[in-house]
């Protein structure tokens, strides 16, 4: 694997130096598949003296593929357990049972291992299992644990593959973040819950501990979430009531369980840089809090906002969408223009210069109407209304700009990404890499591939966009959320 990985910027303390250097981090890890289980429905009693009284399994759930134990309890007419009773199990056509017929023990329990063999079953769908003993039978619905997600890169492999079958509801947003050679991952489900796994040194898994965890688990006490955003060992979650929860690393308040961010209401969108949070409010204004190294907060001057959100200068109204680089901020205005602020040594603010901006300034090189802006540590990517894609910022032999060039350069002006002049419906970025979701559900990727995040089975970088090989029958409906500190690519697929 290519040991060379994209840069992360040095940290500074309030009022500290801003000595910028490119720093590279890469690691891989193998994550285990979590424990699985099943649900219970109303039994149907037979006329026999002996009957199957119940079916059960851990947490009332069943993985879409892979074995999970299911137990039936046989009792007599008095409700006492019956030993030696043969119980036969049946289910969906694709399912297998080992053994298909089990004998109850002294506690009346007969156990089989069920494998639904339906890898792409929709998370949260129902599979019906039946247990039969003589003339008695019982049928029950089981919640399916699945994953409508493809993944490649750090923490996984260089070959695009399905994520762990761990989710009881479809994934709607998912992302990862890396720091000090380790990664953590966060998923938002359609039921409004948030799930995490990975490194937990700053409490970024939100489980009240700082213990790493290799399996996905729900963040307790958190619901009605509509958006997630990741930074350095930190997570933000926007709730449907317009409030923001956060956990993990924060310059002034690191916590290991979700905590409401003070000073915010009526929030419609969030973004997260390395140590700076951003919130778009319903009135079209933008606020920032946390760190202000390299003017990442855009509040003017060098003072850090700390825990109190401050107005980003020049963004009191008219903002339609926000995005974050490592220490840069971006805003797409309702008229399709863009504004940017913060670190600009690579020209990633797209204003024709490499001058750091303490307040939001126009993206001078943006022509046409922007419909989405995304960013990573050294680059900005813009999707226009005609389906074309532009990029600016750092480029070297890894092809970060996606223009086919391999010579090191800093391009402070937005320029076309090769082969993406039309047909693009969404864009995303990880460190040094760009992704374009096409209108037909295909995905193109370019740039740095040292962690295998381009999903082509190699660690060879791409100078220009090329298709990612999507498994047959899968339709990509959404790209994983951009993160300026990520080396992992996620693609969300249709559940139908």
From TrEMBL:
Taking the record's annotation, the residue ranges forming a coiled coil are: none
Q: Domain named RCC1-like: which ranges?
A: 185-471
Keyword terms: Guanine-nucleotide releasing factor, Repeat
Q: Extract one GO cellular component term from the record.
A: cytoplasm
What is the annotated signal peptide range for this record? Answer: none
**Region of interest: Disordered:** 1-20
Q: Which GO terms describe its biological process?
A: carbohydrate metabolic process
GO molecular function terms listed in the Swiss-Prot or TrEMBL record: guanyl-nucleotide exchange factor activity
Q: Which domain of life is it from?
A: Bacteria
Entry's InterPro entries? Ig-like_fold (IPR013783), Invasin/intimin_cell_adhesion (IPR008964), Ran_GTPase-activating (IPR051553), RCC1-like_dom (IPR058923), RCC1/BLIP-II (IPR009091), Reg_chr_condens (IPR000408), TAT_signal (IPR006311)
| A matching Pfam family | WD40_RLD
Q: What is this protein called?
A: Alpha-tubulin suppressor
């Amino acid at each position: 694997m290519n040991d060379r990985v994209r840069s992360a910027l040095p940290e500074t303390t309030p009022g500290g130096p801003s000595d910028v250097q490119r720093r590279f981090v890469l690691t891989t890890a193998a994550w285990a598949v979590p424990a699985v289980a099943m649900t219970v429905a109303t039994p149907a009693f037979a006329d026999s003296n002996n009957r199957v009284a119940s079916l059960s399994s851990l947490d009332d759930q069943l993985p879409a593929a892979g074995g999970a134990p299911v137990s039936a309890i046989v009792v007599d007419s008095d409700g006492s357990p019956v030993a030696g009773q043969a119980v036969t199990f049946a289910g969906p056509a694709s399912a297998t049972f080992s053994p298909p017929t089990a004998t109850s023990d002294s506690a009346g329990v007969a156990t089989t291992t069920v494998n639904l063999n339906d890898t792409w079953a929709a998370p949260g769908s129902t599979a019906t299992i039946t247990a039969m003993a003589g003339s008695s039978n019982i049928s029950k619905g089981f919640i399916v644990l699945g994953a409508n997600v493809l993944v490649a890169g750090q923490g996984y492999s260089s070959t695009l593959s399905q994520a762990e079958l761990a989710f009881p509801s479809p994934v709607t947003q998912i992302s990862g973040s890396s720091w000090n050679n380790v990664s953590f991952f966060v998923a938002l489900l359609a039921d409004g819950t948030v799930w995490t796994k990975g490194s937990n040194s700053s409490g970024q898994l939100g489980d009240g501990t700082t213990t790493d965890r290799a399996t996905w688990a729900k963040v307790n006490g958190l619901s009605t979430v509509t958006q997630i955003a990741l930074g350095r060992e930190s997570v933000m979650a926007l709730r449907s009531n317009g409030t923001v929860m956060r956990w993990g690393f924060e310059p002034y308040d690191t916590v290991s369980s979700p905590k409401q961010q003070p000073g915010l209401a009526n929030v419609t969108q969030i973004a997260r840089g390395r140590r700076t949070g951003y919130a778009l409010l319903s009135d079209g204004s933008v606020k920032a809090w946390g760190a202000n190294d390299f003017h990442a907060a855009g509040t003017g001057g060098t003072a850090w906002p700390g825990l109190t959100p401050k107005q980003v200068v020049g963004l009191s109204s008219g903002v339609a969408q926000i995005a974050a680089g490592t220490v840069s901020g971006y805003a797409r205005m309702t008229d399709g223009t863009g504004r940017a602020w913060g670190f600009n040594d690579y020209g990633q603010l797209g204003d024709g210069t490499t001058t750091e901006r303490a307040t939001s300034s126009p993206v001078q090189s943006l022509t046409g109407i922007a419909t989405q802006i995304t960013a990573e540590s050294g680059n900005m990517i813009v999707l226009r209304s005609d389906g074309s894609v532009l990029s600016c910022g750092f480029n070297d032999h890894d092809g970060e700009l996606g223009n086919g060039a391999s010579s090191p350069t800093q391009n402070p002006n937005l320029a076309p990404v090769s082969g993406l002049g039309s047909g693009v419906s969404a864009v995303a970025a990880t460190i040094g890499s760009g992704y374009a979701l096409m209108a037909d559900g295909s995905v193109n990727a370019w740039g740095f591939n040292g962690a295998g995040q381009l999903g082509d089975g190699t660690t060879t970088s791409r100078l220009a966009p090329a298709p990612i090989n999507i498994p047959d029958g899968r339709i990509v409906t959404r790209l994983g959320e951009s993160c300026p500190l990520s080396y992992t690519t996620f693609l969300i697929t249709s559940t139908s």
